[in-house]
Amino acid sequence: MSFTLTTPSGFWNPLLWLIFLVLFTIVAYLIYSRGNPSYKKESDQVKPYLSGNIEPTKEKVQVKAGDIYWGFIEALKGYYTVLQTMHTGDIRDYILWYLGVGAIITFILIGGV
After folding, report:
1. Where are the alpha helices (DSSP H) in the chain?
2. CB 67 within 8 Å of CB 60
């Protein structure tokens, strides 16, 4: 009984994959076992190294969503200004926009414009 699957582009043998998996597991365990045993998760060792400076609070270093898209929003400021004036928060306005755009698309598709 052969476990080798031969294809035009190569072969696949599950026993070879199992042997490689065992070898990689052994190598990974050897690397893990040579780690520093004095490392403790619940100590100051987990803090980032900031060249002796005090770590700032998370509020000061946190990047807000508005900061991420600042350049994008600034470049399209005119577009967003128009959209903000159209944004009323009333669901009836959105339904009216939906029906209007749907009617235009239907007219284009049926009319063949």
Report:
1. 14-33, 58-61, 65-68, 70-75, 77-86, 91-111
2. no
